[in-house]
Write a structure and sequence with these properties.
The protein is an alpha/beta fold. The chain is built from 16 helices and 17 strands. The protein has helices at about 35-40, 40-45, 80-95, 115-120, 180-195, 220-225, 240-255, 275, 295-315, 330-335, 355, 365-385, 410-415, 460-465, 470-485, 525-535; strands at about 15-20, 50-55, 100-105, 135, 155-160, 165, 200-205, 260-265, 320, 385-390, 490-495, 500-505, 510-515, 520, 535-540, 545-550, 550-555. Strands 8-7-3-2-1-10-9 form a seven-stranded parallel β-sheet. The protein is globular and about 75 Å long. The structure holds 1-deoxynojirimycin.
């Protein structure tokens, strides 16, 4: 299957996120690589996705899993070469799969040539102007310019040898760029073109709501900063003028045919999401609301309605996400009591944190229930109008790995908080392709993060052979979705039952989800749902003619009466 020339291909696409170091290891060094992705191109095609989004694969010291980029226009030698990238892109394109790369514009790695030059050139130099350097306070400037806290813990300022301090929103290895500097803006346009010229179809934009900052003196205290509204005027986050950057990017996207697409990772007030999603800006933005929600019919319905309204406002399609490389896998979140899986706030949302911190020793995780609910939620998500973002391994029903020793962990959030934060390694453990072998078919060497024994039960090999596996469910769902997909609309069907959500898509495809822990008789769900269930085609759990089973989604094929 080749790529279509449809400029709207992204609107209702299924995008599969690959965390390259943990997907497949072709050269046997324990780290996943681009050749590994190429070697699994048929698997991706069989899954039935429209695009892959690759988390960073650029040269990096891996201080933040690759989100510390030392060279934006190259491949980490441990992950391959530019030739490997081209080969991977061709293999995916030949199978009708688009390629989206991650752009990390808020900060570079401290090993980026610009940062090295900034250190060498000294205070007041144009090289320092590409970053945010300030003199310190107190005697000899030995105190940081402000008391601001970094996202990953500790001060937001790091001192360099000559006494100046630089700003880092995340880890000290990730110095923030100065987006007031035209040179920075120009260089990112080059990066966008570099990858577009190599055939890349789009970009995922990391912390898209940061970049431009107002650091005019006097700088506010942390307390003052925290109290400031995120209304476009906050000194750091979601400033109105960041849109000027994306207006420039948009011109670059539109130089290509079809135009390149982008999706913003912007954790902003939901009313402000459309600014990033409109067609003059990045064109699409993640909606992370489901990452913070319990498995609850009311919550799902509110989130769906709200995001469809926002999409109408921006003119973009809505996006839906249940898992990614920053949060606890949804099979696990849904297996924890609701009180545990509440949103604990913060930038990286990790409901279930307490459970992971206890290394899974607390008995409250119900694995089976978590997976049952995850399958129901995934099937519901895939029936929604808009673009679905899947995270590698969710199609296997993988749970979070909590049993990782401190000396095997990699995530800076763990180390910088001295273990108070549990880190994000548990969702980044390399995939099990086979049920046996040194790294369960991931590669020829032990995987860079340890795979627990139970991973073998979720291997691709095993699930391919099973009729009712999660992999089989995803494959069937993606194939039906492709066949039935219509306009980006949804009509709720009132079921008369608070725990059961049902909606119809244009063309008559109906999705019914029972969120409750008990089976609900079909006869209680009203005539329209009962009629649709007569055309039941696919379910996240066994299908029964008289009931919608507990914690189950059923898809009903388009039919005569729809
Ligand atoms: C968001 C990414 O998803 C996360 O993994 C990373 O740590 C931060 N941005 C900083 O780049």
């Amino acid at each position: 299957m080749s790529l279509t020339s449809d400029p709207n291909w992204w609107r209702q696409a299924v995008v599969y996120q690959i965390y390259p170091r943990s997907f497949a290891d072709a050269n046997g060094d324990g780290l996943g690589d681009l050749a590994g992705v190429t070697s699994r191109a048929d698997y991706l095609a069989d899954l039935g996705i429209d695009a892959v989004w690759l988390s960073p694969f650029y040269p990096s010291e891996l201080a933040d899993g690759g989100y510390d980029v030392a060279d934006y226009r190259n491949v980490d030698p441990r992950l391959g070469t530019l030739a490997d990238f081209d080969e991977m892109t061709s293999a995916l394109h030949e199978r009708g799969i688009r390629v989206i790369v991650d752009i990390v514009p808020n900060h570079t790695s401290r090993h980026h040539e610009w940062f090295r030059a900034a250190l060498a050139a000294g205070p007041g130099s144009p090289e320092r102007e590409r970053y945010i350097f300030r003199d310190g306070r107190g005697p000899n400037g030995s105190e940081p310019p402000t008391d601001w806290r970094a996202m990953f813990g500790g001060s937001q300022w790091e001192r360099v040898e000559d006494g100046q301090w630089y700003l880092h929103t995340f880890a000290p290895e990730q110095p923030d760029l100065n987006w007031a500097n035209p040179e920075v803006r120009e260089d990112f346009l080059r990066t966008l073109r570099f990858w577009a010229d190599r055939g890349v179809d789009g970009y995922r934009v990391d912390v898209a709501h940061s970049l431009t900052k107002d650091l005019s003196e006097p700088l506010p205290s942390w307390e003052e900063l925290e109290a400031m509204p995120w209304d476009g005027t906050h000194p750091i986050w979601d400033r109105d003028e960041v849109q000027e950057v994306y207006a420039e990017w948009r011109k670059v996207f539109n130089e290509y045919d079809p135009p390149r697409v982008a999706v913003a990772e912007a954790w902003v007030e939901s009313e402000r999401v459309p600014r990033y999603a409109n067609e003059g800006s990045l064109g699409q933005a993640f909606n992370f609301d489901l990452l913070r929600a319990n498995f609850d019919a009311g919550a799902f319905r509110r989130i769906i309605d709200h995001n469809l309204t926002l999409a109408t406002r921006s003119g973009s399609s809505s996006t839906w996400v249940l898992s990614n490389h920053d949060v606890i896998r949804h099979a696990t979140r849904y297996g924890l009591p609701d009180a545990v899986s509440d949103d604990r706030g913060g930038y990286i949302v990790n409901p279930g944190a307490e459970w992971v911190k206890s290394r899974g020793s607390e008995p409250q995780l119900d694995r089976e229930r978590g997976l049952r609910r995850a399958r129901a939620a995934s099937l519901l998500l895939l029936a929604l109008p808009g673009c679905a973002y899947l995270y590698e391994g969710e199609e296997l029903g993988l749970h979070e790995v909590c049993e990782i020793d401190a000396d095997e962990r990699q995530d800076p959030t763990f180390f910088r908080s001295e273990g108070v934060d549990y880190g994000r390694d548990g969702c980044r453990v390399p995939l099990p392709w086979k049920s046996e072998g040194v790294s369960l078919g991931f590669g020829e060497a032990p995987a860079h993060l340890p795979q627990p024994e139970w991973f073998a039960d979720f291997s691709v090999e095993r699930e391919e052979a099973e009729e009712d596996s999660t992999l089989t469910l995803y494959r069937r769902a993606l194939s039906a979705r492709r066949a039935w997909q219509g306009a980006e609309e949804l009509r709720w069907i009132e079921t008369g039952c608070d725990d059961v959500l049902a909606f119809a898509r244009p063309g008559g495809w109906v999705s019914v989800t029972n969120f409750s822990a008990v089976d609900v008789p079909v006869s209680e769900l009203g005539e329209e749902v009962a009629r649709a269930l007569g055309r039941a085609h696919l379910a996240s759990r066994e299908m029964r003619p008289d009931v919608v089973a507990a914690e189950t989604t059923v898809w009903c094929a388009p039919g005569e009466d729809s």
